[in-house]
Amino acid sequence: PPDPPPDPPTTAAATAATAAALLLPLPDGRLSYVCGACRRAYMTLSSLRRHANVHTWRRTYPCAFCDRVFALAEYRTKHEARHTGERRYQCLLCWEAFLTYYSLKAHQKKQHG
């Protein structure tokens, strides 16, 4: 039987993206890890490594509602909430619910100071 085709360079691409990361200091003294491929910043190296999957060829998490496929399950979950209207982020002060974490934080800042 013929040899199976080689795997796409997922590991190499992820390693390259991680290796090209920049380590930047924040005003409070902490460090952020910046993706060398897209310049997105992360607070931990493990988060940056997980993110590196988005720059690879492997997309293994399909949306149940459309044709989009995601590199990370959490990205798919957030995307699917747009289809379902699920509001997963709830304000603990007034119990209003929001589609995104950023909407919740903006609400809390505006409404609750």
Automatic annotation (TrEMBL):
Regions that span the bilayer: none
Alphabetical keyword list: Chromosome, DNA-binding, Isopeptide bond, Metal-binding, Nucleus, Phosphoprotein, Repeat, Repressor, Transcription, Transcription regulation, Ubl conjugation, Zinc, Zinc-finger
Domain of life: Eukaryota
GO cellular component, one term: nucleus
GO molecular function, one term: DNA-binding transcription factor activity, RNA polymerase II-specific
Family matches, as Gene3D superfamilies: Classic Zinc Finger
Record's keyword annotation contains Secreted: no
Domain C2H2-type: start-end pairs: 33-60, 61-88, 89-113
Record localization: Chromosome; Nucleus
Pfam families xrefs: zf-C2H2
Alphabetized InterPro entries for the sequence: Snail/Krueppel_Znf, Znf_C2H2_sf, Znf_C2H2_type
Coiled-coil ranges (or none): none
Protein name stated in the entry: Zinc finger and BTB domain containing 38
